[in-house]
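Re: weekly structure request thread

Next one in the queue (481 aa):
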Amino acid sequence: MAAAASGTLFHGVSGCGPGARESRSPNLLFVFPDQMRAQAVGFMGEDPSITPNLDRLAAEGVAFTQAVSNYPVCSPYRAMMLTGLYPHSNGVLANCNTNGAEYGYELPTDARCWSDVLRDSGYSLGYIGKWHLDSPRKPYVDTSNNTEEFAWNEWTPPQRRHGFDFWYAYGTYDNHDHPEYWTTDAPRERRTRVDRWGPEHEADMAIRYIRNEGGTYRDPRKPWALVVSMNPPHMPYQLVPARYLEMYGEASPEDLVNRPNVRLDEDTPGAQLARRHMKNYLAQVTGVDDQFGRILAALGEEGLEEDTLVVFTSDHGNCLGSHEEVSKNVHYEESMRVPFLVRWTGRIDPRQDDLLLSTPDIFPTLLQLLGLGAEIPEDIEGTSRASILLEGTGERPSSQLYIKIPYGQPALGHRGVRTHRYTLSIEKTRDGISATTLHDNVEDPFQLRNVAEARPDLVQELVEAELNPWLERTGDPWGRA
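Done, posted below.
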């Protein structure tokens, strides 16, 4: 669970130094929108969503149907994904905003990210879209999402970009119709404002990067890795082009909200939220799918499909009224489960797989697939799943860790595990354990019943066999608090 495989499965890297190669190493396209739950991808057969491009990608590659965001909120996910470390090791214990800044929550400059490894191995790297790994500092940037008292959005200086030499990004900014970006050479006080739906503009930029228009986006002699981090389907949900809404026609909330953990018949606050925004949310999902399809088409037009590892995932899911929850950062399936689709034409056999994939596993898996298994740091806490992707064999974990940490209280909050059958969440406050929740996801797939009180033996078994080993391996003080 804690050790990464260090062998190399793809032999494309050789020579005497960075950039020296016998054969071209594979490119990497890594696309992850914000707040797209696994249930919202059409092939999963749950939400009535329209996602033809993602469905096709799932049919052409491996779809990990049980992947999760272990700490389902923006900044902690991003730090885990980039570093292969859980929060107590990577330093991002909650969202990067004014509250997080008080405790130094931001991606450390000296962190060794997989992008740093790729840079040192001769790759050109690009980042487009939402970053959300820098704490705001005063005077706050005068932009949406920031006020004089509280801020989210912040510029990322070049020394904090972890190897990404093409930069077209922002911290966090939620005006989807009029997004703003800092370009590679722009100072903090100069942003580029665009009057175009964010995912559409970011797809434009990704296509230009892939085509290397004008020879100005990347070094054509090098393999490349491009990350595209779209904000939708994140709130405000109503900021979505009409053409995607129209694809859902006259569908009513009763047509679209099919999860019994949304109490539409009782008209609760969660039900009201779902009534108001489920069509908007699904329209944003469809819009992201459409723009992702444009990027894939550009890969094909450039003849790069067989040379490019494609990954599509999300930083976390979205409850949108399920369990009366507004969005994420809870243990429920709608919050934790994310799509995770991988295509490498000619190298990975298409199939679905129920591997219990965790966020920190992404780092070593990517490096090993790209032929850089020997460069995986020894202190990595994720585990490479490359052999499962390529050969269908390899270590399979019995659980995934769940984490939620209050600002400034690293030993408190929620910890739990998710197995193929159960989800356990235990909340600890300064006064001790305050709540224990156990769901049987086979007998109760919508998690309507808490069976912790009826199954204390099972709670204890999961704590001892699954949770405690995770806490020990990730250096989490929760178990000792």
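The longest strand covers residues 432-440. Confidence is low (pLDDT under 50) at residues 1-22.
Next request, please.
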